[in-house]
């Protein structure tokens, strides 16, 4: 597929029809993969660093924050007119080794200094930030469903307000996102999490915490993610009623439950993308749809959710040779609101 491919065939053009951006996670090692950067420039207008803006990466040298990798990704985006989604300022899984044993006071100061310095560094140059990532864990047993984390220990339940106010003060133009996983799943635990999220957002918005958008990670599982999902649909309606927009921040479709045959897998994965996007686009004011990688060769799922048969995962929009898969066509069709008559053979054209 050449660079001069007509615009209308690009994912980002289809997404523009719905006034939303379309993007992917990217890491510095991807910058040397020309077929991938070409594919990104052809189909995307938004990128998210897979790990270069996480505190454990920036803060791996206790006294000298290292933004070099993030700067390279930011430069790639700026040079190519791509919007940039910052991921993520405060996440319990991305705390520098040197800070994990910190006493609350030191931890609080370090965490806030990191947030303020990082937001100030990129102020006016990125579109949106995942300010806090994965705040809820009902299994931790708290009344409010908050995850027990060093941030909660250091600041108390006000840590979300503290983080968002500090980010807003240093980059008033950025869209501030509260990012979470598991809100889109089926089952009682997901329903509990959705309820906790609504309560959390009501509490925070009532006290003026500048949360503008809910980030829904959307790490889906083919053959497990329900097509009709009335509970999730109702949740999205409530979020919209609160005046909040939504971002799909890390979408991919794990095929670890699917049969081994790649064509069958690709078919099921594509249908999962289509059904999910149709539902979310139907109910929400979506600002952007981001996948967690664009081509199968770089998916984190081979490590995080390996297939029992050892075959490599095929969860993304392009195959290992950067060819468009049925999933790419399904996402485009969802953006265009094309009727579901879209058939498999079209996908291989
Ligand atoms: C993952 C990366 O993809 C992996 O390479 C890394 O080892 C761990 O983190 N939710 C998030 C992302 O918010 O930051 C995670 O990314 C995937 C789950």
Structure description:
- Strands 1-2-3-4-5-6-8-9 form an eight-stranded parallel beta barrel, surrounded by four helices.
- Helix 6 runs parallel beside helix 8 (159-170), helix 9 (188-206) packs parallel to helix 10 and helix 11 packs parallel to helix 13.
- The chain has helices at residues 11-16, 34-43, 55-58, 68-79, 97-100, 104-121, 150-155, 159-170, 188-206, 230-241, 262-283, 301-304, 326-336, 344-347, and strands at 21-26, 46-49, 83-91, 128-133, 175-180, 213-216, 219-221, 245-254, 286-291.
- Helix content is 41%, strand content 15%.
- The longest helix has 22 residues, at 262-283.
- The chain has 349 residues and is an alpha/beta fold.
- The chain is globular, with a radius of gyration of 20 Å.
- It binds (3S,4R)-3-hydroxy-2-oxopiperidin-4-yl beta-D-xylopyranoside.
- (3S,4R)-3-hydroxy-2-oxopiperidin-4-yl beta-D-xylopyranoside binds at residues 50-51, 133, 181, 217, 250, 300.
Secondary-structure topology with pairs:
Blueprint: H1 11-16, E1 21-26, H2 34-43, E2 46-49, H3 55-58, H4 68-79, E3 83-91, H5 97-100, H6 104-121, E4 128-133, H7 150-155, H8 159-170, E5 175-180, H9 188-206, E6 213-216, E7 219-221, H10 230-241, E8 245-254, H11 262-283, E9 286-291, H12 301-304, H13 326-336, H14 344-347
Parallel strand pairs: 1-2, 1-9, 2-3, 3-4, 4-5, 5-6, 6-8, 7-8, 8-9
Helix pairs in contact: 6-8, 9-10, 11-13
(3S,4R)-3-hydroxy-2-oxopiperidin-4-yl beta-D-xylopyranoside is lined by residues 50-51, 133, 181, 217, 250, 300.
């Amino acid at each position: 597929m050449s660079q001069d491919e007509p615009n209308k065939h690009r994912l980002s053009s289809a997404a523009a029809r719905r006034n939303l951006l379309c993007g992917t996670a990217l890491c510095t090692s991807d910058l040397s993969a020309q077929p991938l950067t070409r594919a990104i420039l052809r189909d995307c207008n938004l990128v998210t660093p897979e790990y270069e803006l996480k505190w454990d990466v920036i803060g791996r040298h206790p006294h000298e924050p290292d933004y070099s990798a993030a700067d390279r990704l930011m430069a790639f985006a700026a040079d190519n007119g791509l919007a940039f989604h910052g991921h993520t300022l405060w996440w319990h899984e991305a705390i520098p080794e040197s800070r994990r044993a910190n006493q609350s006071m030191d931890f609080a100061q370090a965490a806030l200094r990191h947030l303020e310095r990082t937001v100030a560094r990129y102020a006016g140059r990125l579109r949106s930030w995942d300010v806090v990532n994965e705040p809820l864990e009902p299994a931790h047993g708290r009344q409010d469903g908050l995850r027990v984390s060093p941030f909660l220990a250091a600041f108390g339940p006000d840590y979300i307000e503290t983080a968002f106010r500090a980010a807003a003060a240093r980059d008033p133009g950025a869209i501030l996102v509260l990012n979470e996983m598991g809100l889109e799943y089926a089952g009682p635990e997901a329903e509990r999490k959705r309820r906790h999220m609504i309560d959390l957002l009501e509490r925070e918005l009532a006290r003026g915490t500048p949360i503008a958008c809910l980030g829904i990670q959307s790490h889906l599982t083919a053959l497990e993610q329900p097509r009709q999902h009335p509970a999730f649909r109702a949740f999205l309606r409530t979020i919209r009623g609160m005046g909040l927009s939504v971002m799909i921040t890390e979408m991919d479709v794990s095929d670890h439950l699917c049969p081994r045959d790649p064509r069958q897998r690709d078919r099921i994965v594509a249908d999962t993308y289509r059904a999910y996007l149709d539902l979310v686009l139907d109910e929400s004011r979506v600002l952007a749809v981001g996948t967690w990688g664009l081509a199968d060769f770089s998916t984190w799922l081979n490590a995080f959710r390996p297939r029992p048969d050892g075959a490599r995962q095929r969860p993304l929009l392009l195959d290992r040779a950067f060819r468009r898969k049925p999933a790419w066509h399904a996402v485009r069709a969802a953006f265009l609101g094309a009727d579901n008559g879209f058939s498999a053979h079209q996908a291989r054209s």
